[in-house]
Input
Amino acid sequence: MSQVTVTEHLLIHQKKSPAASGVFTQLLYDLILSAKLISRSVSKAGLLDVLGETGEINVQGEQVQKLDEYANSVLIHRMERSGALCLMASEENADIIPVPERFTRGDYVLIFDPLDGSSNIDVNINVGTIFSIHKRITSAAAPAIEDVLQPGYRQVAAGYVLYGPSTMLVYTTGMGVHGFTLDPSVGEFLLSHPDMRIPESGKYYSVNEGNAAMWDQPTREAINYFKGSENRRGQPYSSRYVGSLVGDFHRTLLYGGIFAYPKVYQKPGEGKGKLRLLCEAAPLAFVVEQAGGKATDGERRILELVPQRLHERVPLFIGSPRDVDDAMRFMK
Ligand code: P6P
Output
């Protein structure tokens, strides 16, 4: 079967989607190039001494960066030159990143986690890049924080790159979810998972049970439901948790089930989420809903949450519609 490249796929979708323009397609091209550059370094992480301390000078006489700093700098450098963006926000940067005026600027806003789960690099476990794309909503010359603090249902595209045994790109522009696998021999992402759909319910639940003592009672009951045979399946689910959101989410998308990072209560009454709304929960919620799944913060739909702060954190329950509904019966 002749493989469809991501470039062809984008152009096919550009024709179908009135919203997509050449500028938007160019934006995705540059995002894909960034993913290839990051993938190359991730796959050689242990060799290039890109791990560990910063400040060292490697054999090429280059300043050695930690891999997540490297991924962040690749994305910022490449994407500010895409001509499509006016503003960026990164999990690694405290403030928003306006595209400098010396570059051609566009109307899109890119929010990303350059290398999520980077602590797993040292033990060769999957890591990923997560991205979310909005259209700016302010009209002044300079973009503003309001262009970033938009609810997830306004995203025009979202997705992730998973650096694992193979490198995969999974994205949606609101017309389904499509997965591409990088063929390193030709350096091209090839369509490997067209029109991805999450199973109605799955066989895995994915949560860090080490936090159980810090959960509230409804959360404990929800997680116990998946551990027990009194669930809809009449048998316990299997537990899977690698501690890398993109890896845990991708497995949930393919096999079904639920991933949860519930509120943890370090102090009584002060329950907090860990995952970031803008660069983790909202983009993955867009993907999962486009694949037929659901994503909530334990009460509300993730895509309807209006961010108040750039690095706002939320609890996350995401996965197969029946499994998320079952968990919500306990949470509400
Ligand atoms: P914990 C990685 O640091 C991360 O941000 C996500 O990729 C992952 O899902 C989560 O944190 C793991 O957190 O507390 O279980 O180690």
Confidence is low (pLDDT under 50) at residues 57-62. The radius of gyration is 20 Å.
